[in-house]
Write a structure and sequence with these properties.
Blueprint lengths: L3 H5 L15 E2 L2 E2 L6 H15 L5 E2 L1 H9 L5 H10 L3 E3 L6 E3 L2
Antiparallel strand pairs: 1-2, 3-5, 4-5
Length: 99
């Protein structure tokens, strides 16, 4: 029977396909996942690593940050907004971290 800490801690041999880093090669996103749950994992990771919470960003800054990982920054930006991870002002002039 496993110890309680072993149940709460994922095994070190977690399959690569379940980790976000499996979506990247040499620091670049290979493809935007089609499956919604997998895409959500990616989006949370991007929001956490690329955007600070109490800061506003221009659309240009958001695009530049997203281009560091993938060339289709507009698709990633749209996914982040739809997921509520980035919140856009009504006029589209600035973005902030959401949930």
């Amino acid at each position: 029977m496993p110890a309680p800490q072993d149940i709460l801690t994922p095994p070190s041999g977690t399959p690569r396909s379940r980790r976000v880093d499996a979506l990247f090669s040499h620091g670049r996103l290979v493809a935007i996942p089609r499956k919604e749950a997998r895409r959500e994992q990616l989006l949370v990771h991007l929001a956490d690593t690329l955007f600070e919470r109490e800061r506003s960003y221009t659309e240009h800054e958001v695009n530049e940050a997203l281009r560091t990982v993938h060339e289709d920054c507009s698709a990633l930006r749209r996914y982040l907004v739809v997921a509520g991870l980035l919140v856009r002002t009504r006029d589209g002039s600035s973005y902030r971290r959401g949930r």
